[in-house]
Design goal:
This protein is of the alpha+beta class. Helices cover 64% and strands 15% of the residues.
Length: 199
């Protein structure tokens, strides 16, 4: 019986030694759960960081795109405003051109009428003064007459009312006579010149 107690004590001691050996060497055959969870946390953290960086880049691109769209919108609106002001001016000026034509015809009529010389002279001078002032104001607005007589016919500026045989020394396609003066304001044609063209 003493032998059995000794054997039991030896087995207990060797079991304790085995337990203490395994406790002193935690990496022997048993995976370390704490180390594995740290690696998983680092991988998850780097994945989250990559996702966040991708979102930041996407948001930056979206902000830049919207800023560019806003700049384009602003430019379009500024251009539209300039064009609408120009269009408004041209509509008003087109209506005034007929008045200008009437003034010019009055001057021509006064020049050709020679009977009441002194009276017509004063009237003619007054109308000429109004006509000149009218032209000066239109010029300040950027309105200028389109050159016609002697110029080569240009369908963008001239409207051919009729053709006549070209006189000697005149090229075909040359404007011979202006029936109604044309005007432009910048690049915009307000009214085409009505002309007779050499054929």
């Amino acid at each position: 019986m003493v032998e059995k107690e000794v054997l039991d004590n030896d087995q207990t001691a060797s079991a304790e030694v085995g337990a203490s050996d395994s406790a002193s060497n935690p990496g022997d055959g048993i995976p370390d759960v704490d180390q594995q969870s740290t690696d998983d946390d680092e991988n998850a953290g780097s994945d989250q960081e990559a996702d966040l960086q991708a979102k930041v880049i996407g948001l930056n691109e979206k902000v830049l795109r919207q800023a560019a769209e806003f700049q384009n919108y602003r430019r379009r609106m500024e251009k539209a405003n300039v064009e609408s002001v120009s269009l408004g001016k041209s509509i008003v000026i087109q209506r005034l051109l007929d008045v200008l034509d009437d003034l010019e015809r009055s001057i021509d009529a006064a020049d050709s009428d020679t009977e009441d010389g002194a009276q017509n002279s004063a009237l003619r001078d007054g109308v000429k003064l109004v006509f000149q002032k009218f032209q000066d104001e239109l010029s300040r607005l950027g309105v200028e007459p389109i050159p016609a007589v002697g110029a080569h016919f240009n369908e963008d500026e001239h409207e051919a009312m009729m053709q006549q045989p070209a006189p000697d020394g005149i090229e075909p396609g040359t404007v011979l006579q202006e029936l109604q003066r044309g005007y432009r304001m910048g690049d915009r044609i307000l009214r085409h010149s009505k002309v007779i063209v050499a054929s």
